[in-house]
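Slack export, channel: ligand-projects

TW: morning all. Re-posting the request from yesterday since it got buried. We need the structure predicted with the small molecule present, not the apo form. The ligand is flavin mononucleotide; the SMILES is in the block with the sequence. No rush, but it would help planning for next week.
GE: picking it up
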Amino acid sequence: MIFQNKHILLCITGGIAAYKSVELLRLLKKAGAGVTVIMTESAKKFVGITTFEVLSENPVLSDLYFDTEASVKHIDLAKRADAVVVAPATANTIAKLAAGIADNALTTTLLAVTCPVMVCPSMNTDMYQNLRVQRNLDILEKDGWHILDPDSGVLACKTTGAGRLPEPWFIADRIEAMLTRKDLKGKRVLISAGPTVEAIDPVRYVSNHSSGKMGYAIAKAAEKRGAEVTLVSGPVHLETPVGVERINIETCDEMAARMLSYLNDADIIIKVAAVADYKPVDPKSGKIKKKAGNTELILNMVENPDILKLIGERKTKKQFLVGFAAETEDLEKNAALKIKKKNLDMIAANLVGSKDSGFKADTNKVKLIFKDGSSLDIPLMEKEELANILIDTILEKMR
Ligand SMILES: Cc1cc2nc3c(=O)[nH]c(=O)nc-3n(C[C@H](O)[C@H](O)[C@H](O)COP(=O)(O)O)c2cc1C
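GE: finished. pasting the full token output, ligand included:
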């Protein structure tokens, strides 16, 4: 959402990683951004401008003196830009930017921009570690520009070390973070997500259909808004959101121990995980064999700790506790009862069972119920968008 109606200047310099900028451009466009590409003369030796013009649907700016009669192109672009990303950034261009040199379309435009700028250095490891390059990056950072550290690995020059341009999805993610308001700065957010898994024997288990998508969307949104986020997660098939500390657990007991150990430091606790209410009393150490003639197998279960209740009992007045209630019936009645019983500040209640809401879906529809009895209906929307609305609501209630 953040990229909608935003204009981004994608500045490309003459490094071997220039080919990755094609994918970065594609991702930014797909996310809804308008993009203008600026290339140095050296950059054009690595990737041709046609690809960038077609994908960006805009002319590439490379020659400062082209078409000057119609407008002062670089100043127009600088004024219109909501964000600038220099990817890849060569040692040469980094040095020019740090010194304030304006000798081509890219460096001249960057002297005129007032929006946030991200520089993504990419070069051979010895070049990257060179004192002059480091000094120039320090200058840019102290001036308020964002420097994205390069990845480590095998480089095009066959050496191994720091200097590789991060993957395009990662750069796009960090541009999104750069553009997001930091209204959770200084706050610690503790989130649980995904299912728990309780062993029956070494090969079988009791679990549920939670995909973890809602909890991960909240973790991702909170990190982008400046929070320090800890995500206690059951087994899911999702990437850890960038910048989030993820703690993997399997059982309810493990989740309870981890949540309680992080509780004191947290300002906001959001329990999205679908925790098994019961676990097998006596998980077998060997595989349970099928016995001839046995048509039934009785599994004795025992109650798991109620993590939300334990947190509710320990939480201080300054902490804000949110629970999720997935119900198949009597949604509001059950949610209101849960708020009282577990000392919650807010509950996000949703009906599971429909395809576009609840477990596994990318969208969700919830009713937010507060401890004073008031409520707010949130219509069906993407879980990522809902995550931001939840955070807005929590911040408003905390104020
Ligand atoms: C094959 C090749 C690969 C290069 N790769 C890089 C690179 O990854 N990073 C870098 O800083 N310079 C690299 N250079 C050097 C730059 O192209 C050179 O410093 C150039 O002047 C940069 O110009 P620009 O900053 O205006 O784009 C490479 C040069 C060649 C010939």
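GE: first-pass observations. The longest strand covers residues 320-327. The mean pLDDT is 92.
TW: perfect, thank you
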